[in-house]
Amino acid sequence: MASNRSILSRRLVAAFLAPALALVAVFLVFPAFWVLYLGLTDQALTGVKAVMPSFVGFRNFSRAFSDHFFYNALKVSFVFVLGSAWIGQALLGLVLALCLHELKSKWKAVVSGAAVLAWIIPEVVVAYLWIAFLDKDFGLLNQVLAAAGAEKINWLYKHPLLAIIVFNTWRGTAFSLLLFAGALETIPPSYIESAKVMGAGAIRRFFEVILPQIRAILLTDLILITLWTFNVFTPFLLTGGGPSFKSEILPIYIWRTSFKYFKLGYGSGVSTILLLINFMFALLYLLAQRRAKHA
Amino acid sequence: MPKLQRAVLAGFLALVSIWFVLPLLWLFVTPFSGEPSLGLKFTAPTLRNFSELMAAKTALAAFKNSLIISLGSVAVVVVFASLASYALSRSSFYGKQGLLTLLLIFSSVVTGVAAMVPIYALCQKLKLIDSFLGVILVFSAGFLPTAIFILKDFIDRVPAAYEEAALVDGSAGLDLYFRIVLPLMGPGLAVVAVLCFVNIWSNFLVPFVLIRSNAKIPISVAIYQFFNEVGLPRIGLISAYSLLYALPVLVIYLWVSKKFGFGFFGGLKG
């Protein structure tokens, strides 16, 4: 557009862009590449190896792939993502959105209000809310269960992985719920009505009418929440990764090696692996977006 | 729909709502309880926990630190992002779309603990460990791509006619930006500022890794320390602290949902 060019000269465009791009380059882009280099060294947080690290080649990576703590973290992370992001947030969000769409009543404000509240309260606060909620002796959950005649359970100790999965489902379902609720609104009611007239039951209506309409949104949602859930650090506040590493997801493992045991080089190697996983999901997201635009 | 089916659905929704609400109750009951514990203890409401909090020096300092970090980052993000997004909106150059895509990829990939490892090493080299400036710069860089994206979208929808008229009047450059562009961007800037503030105010990981001295920790880290070092004996104080800490976010939430409805949050977090 010719008229636009006259508003800002090229030099002004560059000057306006410079501060933001410089900051992003130094504190976002550079670290992403530097971590690749750090991962090839034995950089430490303190001591001699903090000042003069030496080059160790791919030793950090081969060490990661022979460290059973790394495999444990990978496995725990996988179960955590499957349980809390896919089965928890996405499936529960979808079911809730469908129910709310069917009922079309005051329920919508109640359910989404409660879910959004769980989603926006600062992570430190929700973590301690759940520590209180799950406490063995006084926690509300055990009080309710005890009233029903069940035995009291030390949830965070006996079932740490299950506890952080349920917690993270509670924490994050709002996003999927809002996304799906919005997508359902865009389906013309006549589609669903005519399927009803033709005698299609709820399950057939879902698979044949609703699902094809929201497939793109479903894919976007799954990619985003998988990316986020892989990187979430909040479970650290609930269990610290324990007991005996049963809830040590990958981010907690990275924190432990890098910042607790000060092995920044090794931590960088593992971080590189996680950042590459992130990168893969970001590319998937872009592809899905592009396909949705062309579809 | 048959009555029975409706009743089953409503029952399911009621159960899920209860599940969402139960863990939250503690946050609104315990700060006013005379016998605070990890359980729910209803007593005659008291403000004792809050007065205990007011006597805790670290807690008050952390409040100030949180404000410095959040408002500082919001200021950097708003100024830098408004300039950059304006330039991006009112210019055309080769690779513009690619630049935007690249920014978004980096901001979504370089995240969490994995990003904190090289960022920590970088801050160590730049002598930015244990400094507000370091935390502010890291937060700002992380949030700038999102902010630029939102603001550019906003300015794209504002016709350039005002600026062209001002140009005829002889305004140019920064003068044009301050007199014409900033006022036009007002609502967009407000959205970005609110979004940025809520995200940074709530963040735990970045200051947890980058801040070392107790005098400089923000509230998120202070609550973590109170809980892990003092624990149950001060649970009343911790609950009051948590409520006050969550309050700005809750107020913003109420205001936004009243104004735009819940759906708006879909674009707000993440």
Provide structural commentary:
- The complex is a heterodimer of chains A (295) and B (270).
- Chain A has a single domain, classed as MetI-like fold (Orthogonal Bundle).
- In chain A, 78% of the residues lie in helices and 0% in strands.
- Chain A has helices spanning 2-7, 10-38, 48-51, 59-64, 68-103, 107-120, 123-134, 140-147, 155-158, 160-185, 189-197, 202-231, 235-239, 250-260, 264-294.
- In chain A, α11 (189-197) packs across α12 (202-231).
- Chain A starts with a helix and ends with a helix.
- In chain A, 46% of the residues are buried.
- Chain B is mostly helical and 270 residues long.
- Chain B has one domain (48-267): MetI-like (MetI-like fold, Orthogonal Bundle), CATH 1.10.3720.10.
- Chain B has eleven helices and no strands.
- Mean pLDDT of chain B is 87; it is low at 264-270.
- At the A-B interface, α1, α2, α5, α6 and α7 of A face α1, α3, α4, α5 and α6 of B.
List the main descriptive attributes of the protein structure presented here.
heterodimer, A: 295 residues, mainly alpha, MetI-like fold, 0% strand, disordered N terminus, B: 270 residues, globular, disordered C terminus
Structural class of chain B: mainly alpha
Number of domains of chain A: 1
How much is the radius of gyration of chain B in Å?
23 Å
Summing up helix and strand content along with how strands pair, one would put the structural category of chain A as mainly alpha
Distance between the termini of chain A: 28 Å
Biggest sheet features of chain B: none
Q: Strand fraction band of chain A?
A: under 5%
Order of helices and strands of chain A: HHHHHHHHHHHHHHH
Q: Kindly identify the CATH topology of chain B.
A: MetI-like fold
What is the mean pLDDT of chain A?
Answer: 88
